[in-house]
Amino acid sequence: MTASTVQGRDPASLRRHNLRTLLRHLHLQGATSRVRLGEVTGLTRSTIADLVGELAERGLAVETGSSRPQSGRGRPPMIVSPREETAYVLAVSVDVDTIGIGRVGLGGTLLEESEARHERGPGDPAASVSQLVRLIHAEVEPFEHAPLAVGIAVPGLVRAEDGVVTRAPNLGWRELNLAERLRDELRFTGPIVIGNEARLAALAEHRRGAGRDCADLVYVSAGVGVGGGIVTHDRLLTGSTGYAGEVGHMITNPGGRSCHCGGRGCWETEIGADALLSQVGVVAPTNRHTALEELFAGAERSDPEVLEAFRRMCPPVAVGLANLVNVFDPRRVLLGGWLRLMLRHTGEELRTALDQLRGLPELPADLRTARFGEQGRLLGAAEAAVSGFLAELR
Amino acid sequence: MTASTVQGRDPASLRRHNLRTLLRHLHLQGATSRVRLGEVTGLTRSTIADLVGELAERGLAVETGSSRPQSGRGRPPMIVSPREETAYVLAVSVDVDTIGIGRVGLGGTLLEESEARHERGPGDPAASVSQLVRLIHAEVEPFEHAPLAVGIAVPGLVRAEDGVVTRAPNLGWRELNLAERLRDELRFTGPIVIGNEARLAALAEHRRGAGRDCADLVYVSAGVGVGGGIVTHDRLLTGSTGYAGEVGHMITNPGGRSCHCGGRGCWETEIGADALLSQVGVVAPTNRHTALEELFAGAERSDPEVLEAFRRMCPPVAVGLANLVNVFDPRRVLLGGWLRLMLRHTGEELRTALDQLRGLPELPADLRTARFGEQGRLLGAAEAAVSGFLAELR
Description:
InterPro entries (chains A, B): ATPase_NBD, ROK, WH-like_DNA-bd_sf, WH_DNA-bd_sf
CATH architecture of the largest domain in chain A: 2-Layer Sandwich
Oligomer: homodimer
Protein name (chains A, B): Putative NBD/HSP70 family sugar kinase/biotin operon repressor
Pfam families (chains A, B): ROK (PF00480)
Strand order of the largest sheet of chain A: 6-5-4-7-11
Number of domains of chain A: 3
Mean pLDDT of chain A: 92
Organism (chains A, B): Actinopolyspora biskrensis
Helix content of chain A: 40-55%
GO molecular function (chains A, B): kinase activity
């Protein structure tokens, strides 16, 4: 009679379920004693020993400490750890100008990462797919073991049902089955999980970052566009088709400027890159990313013009945050992208703007900077990959 | 080894857990054969027989059909049903002008309901509390059995932690521990559950109404104010303090009119009673409820002036709906209050307004009328009461 015994399952299915439970625990909590694994799963000592044996055999976990069944006084307990040198996932973050790639061990450690310039073709994803294949091969080649799974963060809508990137406006992608294309070219049979970058960054914050202890959190990140990810009841909100969290397309200024999405007055048009840059007099820059980088550098050295731009952006940023707080009642609101800089440099003004707009002080509006910067997407992709691996574990 | 066996529980606790599982099933699914109960819970035939025996003894369930352990051909199976004449909850819906009260049997049937004029004192809840006590006594007195629990829907913020009504602007209540006040005066020891009326109406729609098969739904109701309730992953969204779903206080018109909440440009100021009434030339009516009733009657007889008012309200209604769809990606959006009339009479215009505003057609915006009208709050209060009863079942 244990939490891990599930009705109507055959022994093989039950064993998989138990292996998954153990691995999930090791991944999220790290090294754990056999005794503790027994407490957590409710499984008997011999079942734990047996399962840990299988995990070790499969290169997924490693055990240290005494192997005597009854450890005497002072004898070290048996500690089970994820074996990250052989059990790792590949995480990829596709952005407009760059592609980030990294190996993340079971347990969540980023073992190494690199970045390449994204060699995009105009509108056609073929060049991107080829480059992804090359980068993934190069990353994996030095290692004897294949990754357990691949996770890829993209700046676009990803349909939950089949992982298809239905729309990635800044990449010019539409209805792209990226996983299928990669699977064919990579000849990789493990799970390939595709996700929206902001949702994945939210997942990383929830599992490993500034939202680790929060069952209900809202994550908002502003860069060129505005993305978000929401955790409710300790789960990443997916919605009915996988698109939940499109906070950038809340309409915060009806009758405002047209948005690239086809709508009008979206939060993204009010606080996105163009809106921010126009505050420092930069209109239609040749390279938005470079212009943003310069602005961010200005913020870091407390350039008065940049700080004034942040100040002027506080009210429109606060409108969207107020909406999210009133709708979700999150324990914490995590700010990513340049909103981290805004909170750091003009946090008081942002909080004041939010207080002036909002009439419901009962709902807490605890604004915090996200723990991870650019890395959040990569770490989130890794988390999604691990989840994909666990779901398909045989 | 069953789904209902839970690690680390003592036999008494396990038995309560199993009783709860059976009762929850009977409440939501109605009459069920013993065989099916076994399949659903994974419990053995003899355990089911034993538990059903206890439920019958406690007046919670009743059994019909053959009692032979091995029923032969053509013999009717043993059917277990909730026993609503002895197992019922009391549901109360407190509104500005009225108090509704009803008995709802385990299984969800509204056995009877009545309505009284709400005799409020100015700002002081004492008169309301006294009236509630009288109404509840009168409702229960004719019956031998006390209710299993009492559920009360209020138009205000209710803190999840302790059930305190922190703010009910239209009633003038603040920090009112209604459950405690009632418990003292009623001398009722069962659970008294307080909830926000719109959240409870959403719960009723999810369990028994137009959202029964929807894991992700948004419910919005417009009356004097605008309320909402959200279901994600098959659970009513509570947020960190219980206030999630304050959709009426999304800011949909920054710089717009002041809202009674203290904010500005809230959706409620844009589409609430005053905004709607002003569309038919009624400004600052002496009785908003009567004025609204007249307007609704006009809609029912397709009064052109009222339909034109609905048409003009479509764009501001659509702004808030667009935000909710983009953030939650719900499978369905259920409209209550006068939004039901709007959808029925000017649904095409509303859908067009929504399509024109929204730039993300990938996210479905399936607008439907809520199944329950005013009764939704009462039925939701009953559902919350049953949940409260099950949670405290000993």
